[in-house]
Amino acid sequence: VIDAPDLAGRIAILKVHAKGKPLATDVSLEKIARSTPGFCGADLANALNEAALLATRRSHEVISQKDLEEAVEKVVAGPERKSHRLGDEERRRVAFHEAGHAVVAASLKDADPVHKISIVPRGRATLGYTWQVPATEQFILSKSALLDRLRSLMGGRAAEEVMFHDMTTGAANDLEKATAIAEQMVCVFGMSEGVGLVHYAHQRPLFLPAIEGDALPRSVSPETATLIDHEVRQILDQAYQDALEILLAKRPKLEAIAEALVARETLDGEELEGMLRPLKADRPS
Ligand code: ZN
User: Region 157-172: what's the mean pLDDT?
Assistant: First the structure.
C-alpha cells in the first residue's frame, strides 16, 4: 500500500506531470496541491491530463487555473452528468440534503471548511455533493475532529428529517463513511469509554495513513462484539442528534442555502463563504 503524498510531495508530483504542458500565468500548482489531500500520484497526473483536455475542448492555448480546478473536481466526484436531469421535487430534496451537510460543517469548530456544494449529478450514483477541504495538512486527527466529521456526515439525513419529516436513500454513502469512522474510533483509536484502550481492528483505517502493526486481528469475545456494536451505534446516534439540533436552530440558513442551490445548482468561492461565514461567528463555543 502506498501512502498518499503530503503537500510538498503533491506539489513535486504536479510539477513533474506539468512539464511540457502549457500552463497559464495565473496557475498555482501549490493551490491545487492544497485542495487535494488524499490524492495519490496517479490522481494528480489524472487531474493534469483532464485539465489539458478541458483546455483543448475550449480551444484555449494554455491550461488555466479554472481548468485545473474543474479537473480536480472531476477526479474527486466523477464526471458531471448534465443529461441526468432530476425532477423538481428531487432537486429540492438533494439541495436540502447537501445544504444540511454544509450548514452543520460550517457550524462546527473542528470540521473541514466547505469548499463547494453542488446538486449537479456526477458519476454513477452521486446526485449532489458537499466538498470539504482541510484548512491544513492533517496527519493525526483529534477525537473532536472525528466527531465533527461524523456530525457533518449526518447533516444530510438530518436536513431531510427537519424539512420533510421523511428520509431518502441519498444518505447511504454518508452512513457507510460514518460507520467506518465510528468503528475505527471504538476499535482502533481507543476513543470510547465502554470499550476502552484496546485495539481490536484488523483493517487499517481508510481515512488515515497506515499505522505500523495494525495488520493482525485480535480475537473478540461475543460480549465484546456486542459492546463494540453498542458503542458504535451510540456514537452515530449522538452525531445525528447533534446535527439535528444544529439544523433546527439554523433552519432559516438551511433554507436560504438550499433555495440558492435549487436556483444556481452550485455554490462556491465568495458566495458560499458569504453564506457560511456567519455560522462560524455564532457557533456555540
Ligand atoms: Zn450526503
Answer: 88
pTM: 0.81
How many angstroms does the Cα of residue 157 sit away from the middle of ligand 1? 7
Q: Which of 50, 69, 73, 98 is catalytic?
A: 98
Burial 198-233 (b: 16+ CB within 10 A, else e): eebbeeebeebeeeeeeeeeeebeeeeeebbeebbe
SS (H, E, C) the chain: CCCCCCHHHHHHHHHHHHCCCCECCCCCHHHHHHCCCCCCHHHHHHHHHHHHHHHHHCCCCCECHHHHHHHHHHHHHCCECCCCCCCHHHHHHHHHHHHHHHHHHHHCCCCCCEEEEECCCECCCECCEEEECCCCCCCCCCHHHHHHHHHHHHHHHHHHHHHHCCCCHHHHHHHHHHHHHHHHHHHCCCCCCCCCCCCCCCCCCCCCCCCCCCCCCCCCCHHHHHHHHHHHHHHHHHHHHHHHHHHHHCHHHHHHHHHHHHHHCEEEHHHHHHHHHHHHHCCCC
What is the distance in A from the centroid of ligand 1 to the CA of 7?
Answer: 27
The HSE-up count of residue 214 (CA atoms within 13 Å, CB side) is 18
Confidence label for 217 from pLDDT (cuts 50, 70 and 90): low
Which has the higher per-residue pLDDT, 248 or 212? 248
Cell numbers placing 102? 454544509
The reply to whether 271 belongs to the active site is no
How far apart are the CA of 130 and the centre of ligand 1, in A?
Answer: 7
Report yes or no: 182 and 201 within 8 Å, Cβ to Cβ.
Answer: no
| Highest mean pLDDT of the ranges 9-23, 115-129, 271-285 | 9-23
Q: In what order do the strands lie in the sheet with 266-268?
A: 129-132, 114-118, 266-268
